[in-house]
Amino acid sequence: MAEAALRGEYKVRGGKLVAVDLEIVDGRLARVHVSGDFFLEPDDALDEINAALEGQPANASVADLAAAIRARLSPDARLIGFDPEAVGIAVRRAVRGALGWNDLTFEVMGPKVMDPTLHVALDQVIPDEVSQGVRGPVFRFWDWDRPLVVIGSFQSVRNEVDEANARKYGIKVVRRITGGGAMFMEQGNCITYSMVVPGSLVEGLSYEQSYAYLDDWVLGALAEVGVNATYKPLNDIASDQGKIGGAAQRRLVDGTVLHHVTMSYDIDADKMMEVVRIGREKLSDKGTKSANKRVDPMRSQTGLPRDEIFTRFLAYFKNRYNCVDSDYTPEEMARAQHLVDTKFNTPEWTYRVP
């Protein structure tokens, strides 16, 4: 028995859009048609790709679909701007009913200055609301009025932070709900945003692919302010002059995705090195010998005030996606404050990994 026609799309990072229209008949792919703005030689290779997918199990993995395409294509076929895996992802997104960016309307909140620990707590409050249908997808900037080291959910306080030096500078340590590395936050030194989207937006993507997919907009926004940036797996954003920032994610049980990014604007690297322990192995992994090179301030590359970057990034995001302006509700702020008092400021949470 045939299901209604399905469509899936996938934009290759740094490449082209791949679209697949198909039906499912008796648990197998049928009437498959691949299209897109990619380049392909020879012309009849497209027929071979469609034929390779025809009859494949509807639950076939991306790897299985890509292998079927490779087995069918002649050795002289040239796929430019896409690859068999991209086609497989588009198929999986069609089968699973993935949403595209144009299917979403983001509730957008510009930078609002507050205790940064409240922003950490809001990264628990807002995903819960998106998951429950209280809010639609959310995009929000952070801004803060005091210093803070925000460590990843699974990091050791002892290994990541020199607490004596942190106390010397009046810098508190807070553990967030996402994994990844430490964020060294002083007033005005970083640009941080959070995005909360339904899991169906990243359907068919691996974790690594979802980072690149969700960060694609910011690469365009950085180009608008004069920074030639690229995505570096697993979760880094870098320019020609070094690393700019990194991303972290958390998935809720229903698939809702919290994705946030911190980019350095103008960091006091010497103070950061006193407070945050950055091991030689980690620096070597990034191909640098000093923290100063590893943290590449956006101010030096853009020549723009931080507020101007906020303004331009917001304008770029709103121009690219469907958006409505929003703000935090009193109930959200009250719940965030409650979490600060009962979770994020408690030693039980902070030192759960000592």
UniProtKB/TrEMBL annotation:
Key words of the record: Ligase
Listed GO molecular functions?
ligase activity
Q: Which Pfam families match?
A: LplA-B_cat
InterPro entries named among the record's database cross-references: aa-tRNA-synth_II/BPL/LPL, BPL_LPL_catalytic, Octanoyltrans_LipM/LipL
Concerning Gene3D superfamilies, the annotation shows: Bira Bifunctional Protein, Domain 2, CO dehydrogenase flavoprotein, C-terminal domain
The segment(s) forming the BPL/LPL catalytic domain are 133-325
PROSITE patterns under this entry? BPL_LPL_CATALYTIC (PS51733)
Its name, as the record gives it, is Lipoate-protein ligase LplJ
Which species?
A: Propionibacterium freudenreichii
